[in-house]
Write a structure and sequence with these properties.
Length: 285
Amino acid sequence: MEVFDLLLDKIGSHWPQIAGVVAAVSAIQVSHVWSVLRTINSATLSIWRLIRMKPPTFAGKWLAVYRDQVEIVTCTDTTLKELTGFIKNESTGRQFKFGGHHIFDELIGHYWPEDENTRDIGTFKLKQDRASPDVLSGLLTIYESSSGRTESSIRYNWYKCPRWWQRLRFGNVKAGDSGISGVGLIANNRFSAGDEIGVLALEKEAPQGTHTVFLDGKHFLVKKPWRYNNHSHDPNTRVDVRDKQMHLIATRDIFPQTELTCNYDELDKNSSQNFACKCPVCRPL
């Protein structure tokens, strides 16, 4: 018993030192465990990203546009980099075969006539839009065998057509990355000039703010995704007020994946606040 009491006395006299050592060891162990957990978490996220990572695919239906011509493109990925397909002109009905390859976000290809009765051929180089991977922009070169003339540097754009389930899920519009600022209102269908895109969905009456519109003497909060219709001084839509509703109308031909814009200045009291315009007219890309 005396030995036990002596041991307690020794521990008691050196308790501050012992407690400090224990605390230091514990801190080191906790820090080590935390470091290990962070390493495991980082490795797990990296592995998950690799599992989910897919190379860009251009397979599917597209609408290709140059000058006043619209083409229907059916594209098939044959390998991770090679692709083939068909291009059909909407107005003339002429159909071409094409082949090409993609490197990262670029698509390089050439086309030739399906019927082989003409030697008209073309080449193109396209790049994915920085705001939307479903829009390809680039240049087209055309060779006409009848005249022997070659035209180059023709603006050429491809717009990915939404699949049936995407049209069913989103309807005519959806929210997406904006080329102007933040989130934008994106066309999920094709519209001709004068077509009604939809009726702005409004919530309850609210104080004037960023996402409000003025209608029938009151301010209303605009529902998503309609509230993401960004301003532009060169808009592709306008707002018509009829029967106490706000109808969004296309002012030009609009293709899928195109950002929809309207001119806030023309909305008068519907323009909720002063803002710094970031449209391409005021801030060229």
